Structures are given as C-alpha cells and as structure tokens.
Amino acid sequence: MLKINGLHVNYGPINALKGISIDIAEGKITAIIGANGSGKSTMLSAISGLIIPDQGEIYYKDTPIQTKPVEERVKRGIAHVMEGRRLFKDQSVHDNLLLGFYFRNSKENKKNMLKQITEVYERFPILGQKKHQLAGTLSGGQQQLLIISMAILSKPRLLLLDEPSLGLAPIVVDQVYQYLDELKAMGVTIIVSEQMAALAMRIADFGYVLERGKIVGKGDVQYLKSMMDSDEMSAVYFGEAKV
Amino acid sequence: MSSLEFALELIFTGLCVGAVYSLIAHGFNITFWTTKVVNFGHGPFIMFCSMLVLSFLLNGLPWIVSIPLGFFIIILLGFILERFSIRPLLKYPTSMGWIVSTLGVGLFLQALASKIWGAQALAFPPFIFKATDYVSIFGIQLSAQYLLVLVMALVIMLIMEVIINKTIWGKAMKAVAHDPNFARVMGIKSKMVMTLSFMISALLAGVAGILIAPIYGTITPEFGMNIMVLGFVASVLGGIGSSKGALFGGLMLGVIEKLVGGYISTSAEHGVAFLILIIILALKPDGIFGVKVVQKV
C-alpha cells in the first residue's frame, strides 16, 4: 500500500528524519511510536504532502508520490488528521463537515453529500445536536470526533492520524479507537502515531518505533509489547536508545 | 432649505460616500481573510481601473465595453500582484515585506498612470445619470448619481455576503483564512483561493473606482491612494476582517465627514473624522465589530 525508502527531511540545520524506510500493509493498522520530537508528525506530513522530503521516495500503490502536491494525494485517497485538533474553529460543525466532504469527493459522490453527513450525525449524535454550533466551542473529545468524521467523509484508502488521543479523557479515547477498529473492518489502511505506546498497541497490527528521526524498532504487536516491557523501550522515551 | 432638510441631505450624501468606503473596506477584508495581508496597493487599483475606463471612453468605446474591459484588466493585475509580490512572501509568515511590496506595486501603478495619462486632473463623465439629475424623497432633493452609488455598493456587498456565508466557495475562503495547511489536507486548493481573493478584491477596487469617479467629477493618479486611506480607516473603525464592520465603518465615516463638512468646514472633514476615529479606537481597539474567535480552552 505504502512504501517509504530512505526518507530524509531537514528543517534548516536540523535533521528531522534521517533515512527512514517503512512498509505499510493494506487494510492494517500500523502504529508509529515515539517520544516528542522523534519525527512522527514530520513523517506523516511527508506522506500527506505538507512537507516535501529532501531525499527519499514515497510509493503509494506502487506510484511515487513524494513530489505530488497535497491536493493530488488527497484525491488518491490519503487523509491526514493533523496533530493538535485542527479544525475550522470559526465555522459551524455542519460547515466543517461540508468542507471535509466537498473538495475531496467526485461530482457523482457529491449528489449524496447531505445523506452522508446525516450518517455522521447518526453515528455521533452529539455532533448532530451541535451542528449549528461553532466548532471551536466543542469539547476536546467532540472536536476529535468531528475531525475524524471529516477525514472519513473523503472515503480515504489511507488514513493518517497524528496523536489522536492527545489531551482526551480515557472514555473518549476508547470511543476514537473503537471507531478506528470499525474503519479497519471497512478496509481502510490506518497509520496512527502515538506517544502513549500502550494505547496504540491496543489496536495496531504492526508498529515502528521512532527516535530522533530514526527507526529503532519494528515488529508485530507481540514483539513491540515485549519491547515495551524491556529497558530498551523505556530508554527510547528518555532518548537514550542503544539500538 | 430648513435646517432639518440640510442635516438629512448631509446624512444622505455621507451615506453614499460612506457606501464606497465600505466597498473599499470590503476589498481590504477579502485579501486579509485569506492571507492576513492588508493590500496597500488597493487604492491605486481603484484609480487605475477608472483611468482605464476613462481612456477607453475617450477612445470612442461605449460604456458597456469600457467597464468590462477595465474590470478584466484590473482583475488580471490583481492576479499578477498576488503571484509575484504576495505569494513569495507568504513562505515567511513573520516577514513584513508585504507592506513594502503592496505599497510598491501601488506606487508603481500611480507612476505608470502619471506617465500614460499625465499628472493633471481628468474629467470623468457622469455614469447613467447626469450630475443634475435629482430624485425627490420626502421633500429632499437627492442626487440620482449618489443614489446609484449607494444602491450599487449595498447590492454588491449583499452579494459578497451571500457568497461568503452561503456558498461552499465562501466557506472555503474562510477555511483558508483560518488554517491554510489544514484546508489543503481537506482538498481545498489554498493557493488558488488566495489568488482568487486578490482577483475579487481587485474587482471590488475597480467597482469602487467607477462608482466614485463620477461623484468626484475628476480623477488624478493620486485619487486612489487618498480614497484608499479613508477605506482603510473605515475598515479599522468597523474592525478589520468583519463584513458588518466594513459596512458600518464606511457609512459612519462618510456621515461624520459630511456632517463636519456641512456644519464646521469642508477643510476640517478629514481632520475631525480622524479625531473621532482615534477616540472610538481608544475605546474599542478591535474596531466596532472586531472579530474575536470563540474558542473553548
């Protein structure tokens, strides 16, 4: 589904990603685990096109996309839920969903726009109740549900989620993760970045551990769980990995 | 003329001139929304469009051809302005280079107009109505030309409001203003929306020029810059970025100006208007309708 070879991203003198290579299987949930500043967000932004890498290739469905603009990647089915609950906070919940839908769907699909938005309200009734409210006035959890709903309305084949649990109450995190499981069952490939490794492990099939722009561990959930219990993993979080 | 009639006539004239200030403030708002840039080239755009239309008229073209042609050229200039003097600077959000670049483009257009049409004032013919056409409402004689300006400015602003608040493209414009990167991952072509906003803003400048030039009677290469300052004041007074603010800021400024002109002195019009502006801003620094983003924290 997605293959990255030797990806380098530099912010001026800072090397944010130092030759990352990953392979994402179709229909699976892949976790990217790492501490703050390890390069998780940079990696997801390079996949969605917000950042153009300095070096390396990104293949999506066997086509190189590393130089394609964001809008082109969106059309190909890549949806990016950015870190920090990004929303159009000065517009209503309903308008956010309209914007989430309109520019990423074909003309044919647009005929059913309101029906599909109504389905979101049925899935998350709280969003339906607050549809005329400004998105910025929703609680953190409601905002996250809205953001993910906006991403889903584009019918993505590859969904990138950057720390979806950040700052959310455990009960809301459960709701978000349950929804991701449902999406996986619908055949969506998901890459989720998390600082909280234990959370990601709950739903992921495979994972990569990132530290200071390098991959320092990869494997299936069992392997990562065993790694988590070891000193090695805790060292990753304190920035002293010896891999 | 009774003192009441005199006051009402001043208020009416003020509303008409103010409607054009509102239109200019609207033009400022549109580019401010998408790029957070205040286009100081807006005034010379107003002048350049009216100069172009006048020059087409003088060359024998009819109004019906001259106006669309003028609008087309000014929209094209709006496109060029965004592409070459705004977009390169947006890569550096902290850069204040846009002040210099927009002002630079404005001054260039002003110099170009002087070169082509000369620095002297040129007579601008009345549009649709003659300067002597009057309409009588409640016993007050209202200039038909002024009335036309008021009605057209209000209609254009109403259309803009509907486009921005009711259409998906308007919502996309607001989305780009709020967070261009997030808008991009939502599939909105942020850069195209920015370019489009400069083209629409240029068109509004052109419309303002065509509406106000017959009222002024003559136009000079400097006329746009002078009127732009008043449009900018209207914008700040109402609260930059706010549509309601642009409308009320403009109308208020126009009425204050004309009342001062009528009761004190025409030479004090701008001075007193600015004094009132300073007082209002001291009390409401964000402007009367200053946009405040509601956000739960």
Notes on the structure:
The complex is a heterodimer of chains A (243) and B (297). Chain A is 40% helix and 26% strand. By secondary structure, chain A is an alpha/beta fold. Chain A has a domain at 2-86 and 156-238: P-loop containing nucleotide triphosphate hydrolases (Rossmann fold, 3-Layer(aba) Sandwich), CATH 3.40.50.300. In chain A, helix 3 (93-102) runs parallel beside helix 7. The two termini of chain A are 27 Å apart. Residues 238-243 of chain A have low confidence and may be disordered. Chain B has 297 residues and is mainly alpha-helical. Chain B has one domain (3-222). Chain B has 11 helices and 4 strands. Chain B has helices at residues 3-35, 42-58, 63-90, 97-117, 144-166, 168-178, 180-185, 190-216, 223-238, 243-263, 269-283, and strands at residues 122-123, 134-137, 140-143, 218-219. In chain B, the strands form 2 sheets. A two-stranded antiparallel sheet of chain B has the order 1-4. In chain B, strands 2-3 form a two-stranded antiparallel sheet. Chain B is globular and about 65 Å long. The model of chain B is unreliable at 293-297 (pLDDT under 50). The chains are: A alpha/beta (243), B mainly alpha (297). Chain A: Residues 2-237 form the ABC transporter domain. Chain A: Keywords: Amino-acid transport, ATP-binding, Nucleotide-binding, Transport. Chain A: It comes from Neobacillus vireti LMG 21834.
